[in-house]
Amino acid sequence: MAATQTPYPDARAPHPDMARAARSDTTETLYLNLLGPVEAHRGAAPLNLGGAKPRTVLAALLMARGRVVADTELTALLWGDRPPATCTAQIHTYASRVRRLLGSGIDVERRRPGYLIRLPEHGVHVDLLAFQERAARGAAALAAGDARTAADTLLDALACWRGEALGGVCDPLVVAGRDRLEEERLVALERRMDADLELGRHGELIPELIAEIASHPLREGLRAKLMTALYRAGRQADALAAYRAARATLAEELGLDPCAELQRLHQALLTGHPSLLQPRPVPTAAVPATTAPVAATPAPLPVPAELPPAPVRFIGRDQEVLRLSTALSDHRPRGGEPAVHVVTGMIGVGKTAVVLRTAHRVRHRYPDGQIHLDLRGSGPDPLDPADALAELLRLLGVAPDRIPAGSDDRIRAYRTRIADRRLLLVLDDAADERRLRPLLPVTEGCAALITSRSALPALDGVGRTALRPLPAADARGLFDALAGPARTAAEPRAADAVVEACAGLPLALRIAGLRAAARPLRPLATLARRLTAPDRALDELALGDLSVRESLMDGYRRLAPPGRRALRFLSALGPHPVPPQTAARALGVGPDRAEDLLDGLAEEHWTERVDLGGGPGHRLHPLVRLFAGELLAREEGGVPLPLPVRSGTGVPLSASVRSAAGPVLPVGAAAGPLPPVRCAVGVPLPLSLGPAPVRVRAGRAN
Questions:
Q1: Average pLDDT, stretch 187-211?
Q2: Pair 618, 610: CB distance under 8 Å
């Protein structure tokens, strides 16, 4: 008989392993179940986990499999983008509740920056781990040609499911985890169907395949199995009709042709190729099980699922996500190249959010795994390529003591490990091409989404998407969603002022919105007033572990000293675009050197290039200008600033600097000392228009 079953066993029935334990009258085992409603049982007695939040903490820790789950990740899984001010204390409460309920045998450990769970070797049964272990053994048996063992083992694995996974947890964890677990279930189901086909059970598989395709119409592997089963049942016309239905569905839903495998199968159906009627032979049990235990079978490669949660509040960037999703879904390699796409932009512009949104949208196209790796390129300590390769190999199933010592050997092992797999890599915050190249996939079927401050111009054959600050409508929509639409509707002018002060930077908008939501009794007008005060704006744009100033400082430390100096001095030249000639005079360097410095800042997205008609100009984002102005005031005492200089609009610089009393001081004044004046960031400049260079005094104006 075929191992036909409904998609999930009866959720009301006891877990099969619980039933076995009850029959054998064993000591009480703790059962932790995720593949259905999240629940815990000691023996047959249920434990009261409480509401959705403690269930979410338990599920997140179990799914991490010994990895520390950071407080920030738990916060996102529990509250999305609207955490309460007391979120850290509440997480501690939920973790303590889980620890108390599960008992002394389970270690829910505080390990900064978060929590991890340690399970003993005996006495605890986690349905997810049982499913994954049995699914791996079944896949290994199938690869070894033992279809009968594979079918039985995979059927036993699928019996661990009691319904949709992660029932009763908070929505962000459902979004982050349920699709991944459902993908694992479907992979195991398809492998069990492969085993059934090899055992000649094609006639009994047809109804189950039709039902699964109705639930998953874009899954081409199911379509291929249905075509094969119909053909082997003597229904060639129905098999060809199944192909036409697959082609029509894919064209209508995705605008795609069937994959190469489905097209080859169609050609085989048309010609009646003999291979369609020749499943692999099922080996006989010639070797006793005691001499060839299942544990001796080489384990299949693991399927990593390392993507962080997709952002819950995601407004704007729809076109960028659509283009990236289409590129990764429609990718047709030429000459075996993988799909590699770089998303660039300034700090805080939302590169990671766009990439994660895209990765979650297309992950079903990469059934062999999805990996996220933070390369720390914007900070002072970028991840070394050798360490990154070691982490990738670990995620791909290489034991730590088997990871090669040398970088070249690690590269070769990594490329061998990902060959012939459909794997999605998210390489977040790449510093430069040298550190990135060893990590890129080199075979078709794999894809890489990269975020970087740099455009990485030395990488050839990659797609590039440059993100700019959000347009006004999207910026307002994001702030409204975070602060609350009723709140912003009650104070529309203040909301507009806050959004304008954030200048379209998603990080700033997110902080401002969350800050407003955390202080419901404080008027938005207060936040607007503080954000529009240059000496307070960056202080206000900080909340918890989010800070515009600290994010910019991390990137600033990565700049070479000449680039830092150029950035500081640009802040004194006002908000207008600055041509290279103006920067050259301000910095006291030649035009070519100034142009190189400005281009370097633009390539790292510290400045924005604009066309001034007669040539290029560079301008700073308003928040970057405030940040650089602070550094100018703090660090630049005694550095010469030659005059005269002019802004990108041809207006003398002195038109944008005023004395404390307010009058404009003309550049063409007679030689001699002038009263101290303020530059655009409020730094006192004792301008001297004679032959001596101007010097910038450290400190702020009173």
A1: 93
A2: yes
